[in-house]
Amino acid sequence: MKKERLHTAINDAELSLHRLAKLMPGLSAHRRLADVLQLIHGVFEARMSWIMLETDELRHLEVLGDSLPNDSAERLLAELRQHRAPWRVKCWHKNVGRLLYPEDHPLAQELKCGVLCRIFPLQDDARAFLFLAFDQPLLAPAVLRSVAQIIAEKLHDAMTELISRERTAVELKNIINQYRILFDRAPVLMNSFDKHNRCTLWNGECERVFGWTLEEVNREADPLALFYPDPEVRQRVRETINTSPSLEMHEWYPQRRDGAVLATLWSNIILSDGEIMNIGVDITERKRTENLLAFQATTDALTCCYNRLAILDHLQKSLDNCQAEQHETHFAMVMIDLDHFKQINDQWGHAAGDEALVYFCQRIREQCGGQPRLGRLGGEEFLLLLPVADPGEAIAFTDRLRAQLLAAPFTRDDASLTLSFSAGVLVVCQRHYERAVLLTLVDNALYDAKRTGRGKTVVASLMQ
């Protein structure tokens, strides 16, 4: 009997040496964990095998052969840790299936012997374990233990390198997830269109701002037409996203799903694969605020015509643009003052006076058409700039305005009042005069109109 056991052990040892010789060249430090397990599993003809890598932040389990119940490998390792005795190799020559499967599971009876080896030392918080199970007692326990120790030694470098790769993969995955979250949630518009005008990138901010999903955008024959209905504008946009990217910010006005036009700033970045990413910011609210502030800074709050600073600025620009030899740059200054305005305030109250000023400006706009360059200099005094107008045309304008005021008196609380005004006119044909001089001349003409009876227009001359 002793001779038979020795003969079996020798035969098992010889077989193990052959298998180890076949196995060792393949256990390099650059193979994947699944490939390493596949090699060991195949060489030793195991029924079931697994390798587990553990660190404080990750756990990776590879299984071959029969399926493994959930958490059975973790439970086995936890039971061994409870014994607190140091170990490197654990061998079971019978009933190994009961360690991993319930009693009523077929493999609880079919798996006979097995071995679990701990691969160490790895990095400080890293652990690796190799488990092999067989459906017959292939090796003597001592030989099986020795083989497992040899494999564990050989796997040390491979497992250490695999742990590093696993950590790198986890870190990379975390970075990718962070960038994906950033891409999807950042309050920045990010998208990309390929050379066939198909949208390849469309982040969450684009979907939120424009109202279309990536799938909906790409259902269109020309997705850019959703945002830029004008073909000429669309072609200029297409050049920036396909052929002529620019790092400088450019302002574009795309249309969103509900038809509203947005104000956006865009720049373009060329990625490593040659694709162009468009990065934009929705500045619609900012533009709306800027426009409101600009309106408030240049507009008289009561009459909604230009305030004093704004109309004087327009006067200066008109004067700078005026050329003696270019008639289309000539303009007329009409300074207007409501007659007897103090009496309106005294008789009807200041609220009625404000309404009268608003009414008066509305009538001027009707006579000019559109948005005239009309500004309130202060109180009831206004300055109107009439482009390409000679003295006769300026006088004709004031005559029409008086006729309209006569035909449609200002009314309030069933009372009516025909508004009257005096005006001074000055036609500017060259820019060789200071603005202050022009204002003085036209103001003198207005004073003459009021001094000589009001309700009339007096023309000033630059020659006086």
What does this structure look like?
The structure is a single chain. With 464 residues, the protein is an alpha+beta fold. 45% of the residues lie in helices and 21% in strands. The protein is built from 15 helices and 17 strands. Strands 2-1-5-4-3 form a five-stranded antiparallel β-sheet. A five-stranded antiparallel β-sheet has the order 7-6-10-9-8. A five-stranded mixed β-sheet has the order 12-13-11-16-17, with helices on both faces. A hairpin with a 7-residue loop joins strand 4 and strand 5. Helix 12 crosses helix 13. The longest helix is centred in the middle third of the chain and has 45 residues, at 141-185. It is rod-shaped and about 135 Å long.
Report the count of strand segments: 17
- Subunit organisation of the chains: single chain
Q: What's the story with the biggest beta sheet?
A: 5 strands, antiparallel
Helix content: 40-55%
> Distance between the terminal alpha carbons, to the nearest Å?
143 Å
Count of DSSP-assigned helices: 15
Strand order of the largest sheet: 2-1-5-4-3
Described by the principal axes of the CA atoms, the overall outline is rod-shaped
- Radius of gyration, whole Å: 45 Å
Secondary-structure blueprint:
Blueprint: H1 2-23, H2 33-43, E1 48-54, E2 59-65, H3 72-82, E3 89-92, H4 106-110, E4 113-119, E5 127-134, H5 141-185, E6 189-193, E7 199-202, H6 204-210, H7 214-217, H8 224-227, H9 231-242, E8 250-252, E9 264-270, E10 276-282, H10 284-298, H11 308-321, E11 331-338, H12 341-348, H13 350-368, E12 373-378, E13 381-387, H14 391-407, E14 410-412, E15 415-417, E16 421-428, H15 435-451, E17 457-459
Parallel strand pairs: 16-17
Antiparallel strand pairs: 1-2, 1-5, 3-4, 4-5, 6-7, 6-10, 8-9, 9-10, 11-13, 11-16, 12-13, 14-15
